[in-house]
Write a structure and sequence with these properties.
Layout lengths: L17 E4 L12 E3 L8 E7 L2 E6 L2 E6 L2 E7 L7 E13 L8 E12 L2 E6 L2 E6 L13 E2 L5 E5 L14 E7 L5 E8 L5 E7 L18 E7 L6 E7 L6 E7 L5 E7 L20 E7 L6 E7 L5 E8 L5 E7 L20 E7 L6 E7 L5 E8 L5 E7 L20 E8 L4 E8 L5 E8 L5 E7 L20 E7 L6 E7 L5 E8 L5 E7 L20 E7 L6 E7 L5 E8 L4 E8 L20 E8 H10 L6 E5 L7 E6 L5 E7 L5 E8 L5 E4 L12 E9 L2 E9 L2
Antiparallel strand pairs: 1-7, 1-17, 2-3, 2-8, 3-4, 4-5, 5-6, 7-8, 8-9, 9-10, 10-12, 11-12, 13-40, 14-15, 15-16, 16-17, 18-19, 19-20, 20-21, 22-23, 23-24, 24-25, 26-27, 27-28, 28-29, 30-31, 31-32, 32-33, 34-35, 35-36, 36-37, 38-39, 39-40, 41-42, 42-45, 43-44, 43-46, 46-47
């Protein structure tokens, strides 16, 4: 069902600048708040309430529902009756429209029960109950509601629940859709100090969970920021920020007070900027934006553009010890603002990466530099190191991208290389910089730090010769775009370890997080049916064209601790994750799958339409425990050396003294060689590149299989000349 705002409220997007709402949506068990009109809508509307599939409007003389492209009169009521709130909802909402703070409405009341038109209306479960203020008075017969036998009370349901959901179990603590009838994408997530997740993304939905009328009549993208309850059952507040153009929230960070700094992009000059902002007007076609919201979403602390005459986007942000936002992204603008002492103040051409640091109040640019040359660069992610410096990752297509003496890779390797660059945030000067790549195209997407301040990086590689290390989990490129995970030293001079992670089709790492034991969790998308999984995983089978994968490596990248698919029958992707101290993982992304796994206690258990954001809390300890403790489970393997000539050792673990069969097959599945061994006395076999009758096999790729009881694991081998 597609929801639209009432026709009389469809106004130009220049009027809708920012909307903030606290909402417990009727699409879940929690009742939706009934929002009082304090000037945010035309005066004839007294109250309104929303779900992802319908909006309900309380007029003077009727109740209307907008849903499925229709504006329906549900109930006629007598005018001039008292209209007032009776029982408060815990939610609150705020509205920021236009650039005049005097026109903003803050902390608008919301109600669970109201009196309107001579009736008592109460938000309950997935709809509204209604009864007359005069006891014993039956409801009008023509009202299309579910009536009690005596006809004195009624229930207006929003819609029927159709999406299957799971009970919280099997490592999926909770999981929820987040979206409306358009396309919605979750791009950033952070856990607040109170244990509640704060999320950011972009929405193209008229009915994104928010106040009725708060959507975009033009159907363009808005930035959304929302906070969910710790158990994922309730949306504590939701804020839509937008201009009359295309907008997206790409990342967020929380300061020590819980206030939220959001970065992204906008493409119109009617974005809400605040007095004293560093840049008060849009610079070009599309600008980066940076803004700070209060921890309850009710106040816009400050907001600024950041950009030049062409296109600019801020992708990620962190907050330093002084409370200043440090951000990275990319720009096409020749006049991107830079500062004295910066490494590079001149745009190299195409897209350049940038690093920028704003003052804590958003009024000044403390440091800013460009990074790049004549090719295109991206700035995808950053981390703040313990010494205060900034390490950022991205991709470069420039042969003269800056590197420093002693770096791991100083020369171009392929058409596109990844890079890891370290900068001084005080003056944006270059400290050190290295490339990371092979002979084809490589992209680096995310970076995290381990306890030794080494850089753990993930992305994707088309290069068969992407640098991997001996003893790594997977040293052979598996095909197409392979996920890569690498650890570079604290000064970028050495590759501590590096591994491929993928199957025969396309795989890319889009998020990385480290737990307190230094285990590395990598998430992304996979098209590979043979993406490696582990026993006890949530889902060991691919579900759709694109699935989310959640894989965890041990601290030195030599073994896969757990691997699982997460998705439905269509395209699913994840973009950000945060590892929590207790071993759980907070994940956000986008799904096109109505059957994406959500839990029965979730805020939104129904897929709305086109594409929804999703937010999930995973307990990786459950899957790792299942792998470690189940007899015959946790079967893992690797081959060393790999590629090899003349021989390689195929090593396995987790067989728990069961008989083991090791076999090698060609890529058509034909058996080449096999061994039956006793895992109580050995953990390996050696293959010399010959078949069962002693003939040398052709150079190329082979698949090895290890079977222990009912458990099976596989890997790839590469025999070279």
């Amino acid at each position: 069902m597609i929801c639209q705002t009432a026709p009389s409220f469809q106004r130009g997007r220049q009027a809708l600048i920012c909307l903030s709402l606290v909402l417990a949506c009727a699409a879940a068990a929690a009742p939706a708040p009934i929002v009082e009109n304090r000037g945010q809508w035309p005066a004839e509307v007294k109250f309104a309430v929303s779900s992802p599939n319908a909006n309900l409007w309380f007029y003077d003389n009727n109740i209307r529902m907008t849903a499925g492209g229709q504006n329906l009169v549900l109930a006629e009521i007598a005018p001039n009756n008292p209209s007032r709130g009776l029982s408060r909802h815990l939610a609150h909402c705020s509205y920021f429209r236009g650039n005049d703070p005097n026109q903003w409405q803050r902390i608008v009341p919301t109600w669970q029960e109201i009196q309107h038109g001579g009736y008592i209306w109460r938000s309950e479960g997935r709809g509204l109950t209604v009864e007359s203020v005069v006891p014993g008075t039956p409801l009008p017969e023509h009202w299309p509601c579910e009536k009690a036998d005596d006809g004195q009370t009624g229930y207006f349901p929003w819609h029927e629940h159709t999406t299957p959901s799971r009970t919280p179990a099997d490592g999926l603590v909770w999981s929820t859709f987040l979206g409306g009838a358009g396309s919605d994408k979750g791009l950033g997530v952070a856990m607040a100090a109170d244990g509640c997740p704060v999320v950011v993304g972009r929405s193209r939905s008229l009915d994104f969970p928010s106040t009725p009328g708060g959507g975009s009549p033009n159907g363009l993208n808005d930035i959304f920021v929302a906070k969910l309850s710790a158990d994922g059952s309730t949306m504590l507040w939701s804020t839509l920020l937008g201009s009359s153009g295309e907008d997206a929230g790409m990342g967020l960070a929380l300061d020590d007070q819980g206030d939220i700094v959001v970065v992204g992009l906008v493409s119109s000059g009617d974005w809400p900027v605040t007095d004293g902002a560093y840049q008060g007007v849009i610079g070009g076609r599309r600008d980066a934006v940076v803004c700070k919201l209060s921890s309850d979403g009710a106040d816009l602390r400050w907001s600024t553009y950041l950009g030049g005459v062409l296109n600019d986007v801020a992708n990620r942000v962190s907050i330093d010890a002084e409370g200043c936002p440090v951000l990275v992204g990319e720009t096409e603008s020749l006049d991107w603002p830079t500062t004295d002492g910066a490494h590079d103040r001149f745009h190299g051409g195409g897209w350049d990466a940038f690093m920028a640091r704003l003052s804590a109040d958003g009024t000044s640019l403390q440091a800013s530099t460009l990074l790049g040359d004549v090719g295109d660069e991206t700035g995808r992610d950053l981390v703040l190191r313990s010494d205060g410096s900034v390490s950022m990752v991205g991709t470069t297509a420039s042969s003269l991208y800056p590197t420093t003496a002693g770096a791991f890779q100083t020369e171009p390797q392929g058409t596109d290389d990844g890079y890891l660059t370290n900068l001084d945030p005080d003056d944006a000067s270059l400290v050190w910089s290295t490339r990371l790549g092979g002979a084809d195209r490589d992209v680096l997407m995310r970076v995290a730090l381990d306890d030794a301040q080494r850089h753990v990086i993930t992305g994707g590689s088309f290069s068969n010769d992407f640098p991997v290390t001996d003893g790594a989990y997977d040293t052979v490129h598996n095909g197409n775009d392979d996920c890569v995970v690498a650890c570079l030293s604290a000064d970028g001079s050495a590759l501590t370890w590096s591994t491929f992670l993928g199957g025969l089709d396309g795989d890319r790492g889009l998020a990385v997080a480290l737990d307190e034991q230094a285990n590395i969790t990598v998430l992304g998308y996979t098209l590979s049916q043979d993406m490696p999984t582990t026993t006890g995983a949530f889902d060991i089978s691919a579900n759709g064209s694109f699935d989310v994968f959640v894989h965890q490596l041990n601290p030195d990248g030599s073994a896969l601790r757990l691997g699982t698919f997460l998705g439905g029958d269509q395209r699913d992707e994840t973009y950000a994750a945060e590892a929590l101290p207790d071993g759980r993982l907070l994940v956000i992304g986008m799904t096109h799958s109505a059957g994406f796994p959500v839990t029965s206690n979730a805020f939104q258990t129904e897929y709305a339409d086109l594409a929804d954001a999703f937010v999930a809390l995973l307990d990786l300890r459950f899957w790792a425990t299942a792998m470690d403790d189940t007899p015959g489970a946790g079967l893992a393997c690797r081959a060393y050396p790999n590629p090899f000539n003349p021989q390689t050792a195929i090593v396995f673990s987790g067989a728990h003294d069961l008989p083991v069969t090791v076999s090698v097959h060609d890529l058509r599945g034909r058996l080449v060689r096999s061994w039956d061994v006793d895992s109580a006395t050995t953990d390996r076999v050696t293959w010399d590149g010959r078949d069962a009758v002693g003939r040398w096999v052709a150079t190329g790729s082979y698949v090895y299989r290890i079977q222990a009881g009912d458990e099976l694991t596989t890997g790839k081998l590469c025999l070279v000349k």
